[in-house]
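**Protein fold record**
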Amino acid sequence: MMIEQPAFGRRLRRLRQQRGLSQGELAGDDVSASYVSRVESGGRSPNDLIASLFARRLEVPLEALTGPDPEEEEHRGSQRLDVASQLLTASALRKDGELTEAAELLRGIVTAGAGHSEEDLLWEAAWVLAEVLRELGQALEEHTILTGLAETSLSQETPRLAARVATALSENLRQQGRLGEAVRVAETAVSDIVTLPPTAHERVNAMLALLNAYAESGELENAARLADTLQEIAEDIPSRQLRGQVYWAVGSTRFLSGLPQEAARLHEQAFGCLRPDVNLLAWARLCRASAALRLEHDPSEDALESAEGLLTRARQAIELVGRADDLADLMLAEAQLALRQGRPERVLELAGRLGDGDAELPSAKLGQCHLLSAKAYLLTGDTAAAQDSYRQAAETLERAGAYRKSSEAWRQLSELLTPGAP
């Protein structure tokens, strides 16, 4: 016999009230009135013996409590149609760019749906809400929603869904600058879906999240190994957009590994997949990221010229469709360009604007801002200000878990403090 809560409790309450019985009268000497209350609220599931006892006291067959109930089915069908209708409305609002309104409607669905039996639709509503919050740049609320999704029975019982949530959570943590946590969550996602085909969408996305987290936290050996694995399967990935993301991430890792020519070639392959007419924002982010990596890791004049052109295109697109965090990333890349061009005043101007912005920069980006400022101060001959900025960069990047860049900042500070240093 299958006893499903909260349906069993609702039927028990309805039948008890129809017969004019109190909870204590239904309980009798066998159970307590508080136990009946918990069963009716769905908080407890009775065993077969107690369920049969309730049926006898109510003078109904046991199937009246456990079998199909036309009234329940009608209510469930109506509830499902209502949730589905609201989901469609939210999707339409999102498509029209009304993200704030879409988020508000989705929050209402998720809140009102607590305790409902439409778990699949409510899961979908929460998932779409997390995506909309990401588009709005509301990382903290997105983190809360994703954490709640990870704890649902649907996620815990379905490896693909669990992997989707863990991957999104890792990306969320990375965007917040919580790199160590991002690595751990992505590693769990990858290990949980090793049985899926290598090119399965969920598996590739999980590996991408882990690769990005490895790269930003400075775990370059792990990043290089994972990049090799992804490069081997890239051509077999059915989705053109996902294939472009793979070329992008693998190329970025090659830049960090000191292979700028191979990295640039992979980024060109990424540009061939991530076309601006399909996804303008993804294309703009690739332009910005590729430019920043060329500026940092390729000392050639060709790289400088290429990066300048990429940043011009990125700014044009980001001013149209970007978010506040996209603009911050762009300004950091533009500061790198100014540094390569020998324009320290421009670097300090951009760093100042980033520091004075309305939105608080994540630790990893704030640390990078301090690092660029330190290098600019050195160009101006202000050694004391450079030392202070290097110290701030090192401490901030260390807190973020960006250990490779943190080590660079500590090393530069140590050299400046060494007697005889310029």
Observations:
- The chain has a mean pLDDT of 91.
- The longest helix spans residues 70-95.
- DSSP finds 23 helices and no strands in the chain.
